[in-house]
Write a structure and sequence with these properties.
eight-stranded antiparallel sheet, 20 strands, 8% helix, binds 2-acetamido-2-deoxy-beta-D-glucopyranose, single chain, mainly beta
Length: 340
Amino acid sequence: MSFPSSSVMLLVLMLTALLKAASAETFHRAGQISFGNELANILNGGKLLTLSLDNSTGSGYQSTNTYLFERLDMNIKLVPGNSAGTVATFYLSSQGANHDEIDFEFLGNVSGQPYTIHTNIYSQGGGNREQQFHVWFDPTAAFHKYTVIWNPQLIMLMVDDTPIRVFNNNEAIGVPFPNSQAMTVYATIWDGETWATEGGRIPTDWTQAPFTASYESFVINACEYSSGSSSCGSSETTNSVTEASLTQSLDSEEHEKLLWVQENCMIYNYCTDNERFPQGLPPECNQPYYLHVHDHYLMAASAENFYRDVEITFGDERAMILDGGDLLTLLTTLALVSNP
Ligand SMILES: *[C@@H]1O[C@H](CO)[C@@H](O)[C@H](O)[C@H]1NC(C)=O
Ligand SMILES: *[C@@H]1O[C@H](CO)[C@@H](O)[C@H](O)[C@H]1NC(C)=O
C-alpha cells in the first residue's frame, strides 16, 4: 500500500494507554432469570445474582442480548461445603444445530476437596475439547474473577486475570473457529450427580440443599449483535476495552502464567488423551501449543481525506479508515511460535 507520503505521519499506538475500566452491569439490565423461579434471585439492586439447586430443580440466568466477540468478567463464589454433584456454570452459547459454545463449568466436591474447573469449546456443533483444572485457591471462600475473551484470533479463559486456557483460531488448518454466530451469556446451576464427581461415584448429599452459587461484578465489553449487524462497526458504539479485547493476545507475562497453570493445575487435557482419539488427536493439538502474538497498530493521520485519497487493498478489517476519513489504522500481526 502506498500513501501520499508528505501528508502521512505514522505512529505506533500503544493500546494499553487507552484502556478505561467499564462498570459492572446490573443483572436486571443485562438479562433475566431463565429457570428455577424462586431458586434464582437478583439482589442488591441488581448487583448480585444467586442461583440455587435443590432436589427438584436447578436455576439459571441469561443475557438479553447476543454478542459476537467480547470480554466478559464475572466474579463467582461457588457452593461451599459438601457440593459434590453440583455444577455451577458461566458460559456462552449460540442457538441451533451447529452451535458454538465456550464453557466454564464448576464441578463441586465433598468438603475440603478441590473443585474442578471444567472448560470446553464447541465450534459449529463440534465439542470434545475439554480441559480441566484444580485452582490454586478455595473458590468457595470468596469471590474470584472468571473471564472469557473471545475475538477473531483466539478464545482465552482467565481466572483472576491469570490465563488458564487459550484456543487459537486454526481455521487455516481446517479447525472450525466460532466467528460467525452470536452467543448468549448464561449462568446456571444444575444437578450433575450422575457424572460430575468422580464419574458419579460420589452422590450428592441432598440434606445440604439448597446449594447456592453467587455471581457479582458482571462486566460486559462486547460487540452487540442484532439483525445481522454488530455494534462494533463504528468507534462511537465500541468502547476502548471492547476494542482492546478484539485484538487481545497473550503478552509474555501471561504466557508464563499460562504455562505455570498448565503444568501445575491442569488435570485433564483432550490434547493428550490418545486413548480417546485412537485415529489421531484433533488437528489443533498438533499445532504449536500457543501462538504468541504481538499486534502492532500503525496509525496514519493525514490532512487529506483517506476515503478520497486511498483505498484499502488488502487485510479486510485489519485496515480501517476512521474519523470521517481523517485516520487510517493498519494492523499487522507477527506470530512468534513457542512449542509445547
Ligand atoms: C426434597 O427435599 C424436600 C426438603 O428437604 C423433602 O421434603 C422432599 O421429600 C425431597 N424430595 C425428594 C423427591 O427427595
Ligand atoms: C474431588 O477431590 C478428589 C480428591 O482430592 C479429586 O481427586 C477429584 O478430582 C475431585 N473431584 C472434582 C469433581 O473436583
